[in-house]
Description:
Blueprint lengths: L7 H13 L4 H8 L6 E5 L3 H9 L4 E4 L9 E6 L2 H8 L6 H8 L3 H12 L6 H11 L21 H13 L23 H17 L1 H11 L2 E6 L2 E10 L2 E8 L7 H9 L2 E4 L3 E6 L2 E7 L7 E4 L5
Antiparallel strand pairs: 1-3, 2-3, 4-5, 4-10, 5-6, 6-7, 7-8, 8-9
Helix pairs in contact: 1-3, 2-9, 5-6, 9-10
Bound molecules: zinc ion.
Zinc ion (ZN) binds next to helix 6 and helix 9.
Amino acid sequence: MEAHEFDLNDFEKKLSIVDGAGIVLQEFLSILDGKKPAMVFGLGDESFKEKIETAFPGIYIRFSKNQPFLPRLICGVALDENKAAEAAEYLSMNPDDQGVVLGYPKCCVTSHMRFVIESQALNAPLVTYNSFKNSQSLNYLTNNIFNFYSRIGYQEKNMLDYARYGESNINLPINTINFQYISHIPCRYDCEASVAWGKITEGLMKKYTPNVEAIIKNTLARPILFVDLFEWIVFDGKVSDGVLSYNGILPPKAFPDEGLMKAVLEGNRLKVDDQRIEVFNDDRLIISIPKKDERNGFLMDFSVKE
Ligand SMILES: [Zn+2]
């Protein structure tokens, strides 16, 4: 794979085309830099194929022969025409082969395969809790909570929630699809291969899109109360001895339980164990919510530890 030389100032100008096409910036940078063999995405407007291929000579966009999700056109993107065409057909591959074509770590693909075989791949609390429980520590480079590829499926409810999520965050300075360093579901939040991959993306972003990098790190390297795919809260705070002390919450916005959210806005401390979620203002208990099970709301701390 040959890396693509491109000029930084020039690139900033072209970035709006990539963003306008709805392409995840991090993946595109990895392709351009020769770090990733290929990527796939759904193009809403066919005219972007030519715009992107013209703006980035050497990049190939190839459409799948099979388009089940019209009006979005599934396509593969790569520095190699054959690889772009191959990636475009990812839906007819098993997840193992998809992982190879898209350059995902083997350990994470194997972990994902297990959930696919058990028909649990879209069970976000189960899949996320599994990666969380397997981890010794949590690295922000592997934080995939705001990345919905392979997690959302094509169920109507999820698609509607995803559209609502996009609309609720329309005022953010960057597209919500760009809140990520890795594109896959990590087997653990300290998976070495995923951290290494995240570091590469972080380096590319610091070099080519430092403003976007600063915005995403400000969200990804934080404590997050995770309940479900579109139910979570990102905190500006610190976790110590299992208790989160916080000053506020951070974007993007999701749709957590309204009672919980109201309490969080009134409070400044949050405690989670296997049985319940409790919110306090100093020592005054504001709300205590019983959990259905241990996966029904858990605190993941992606903060950088000093
Ligand atoms: Zn892994």
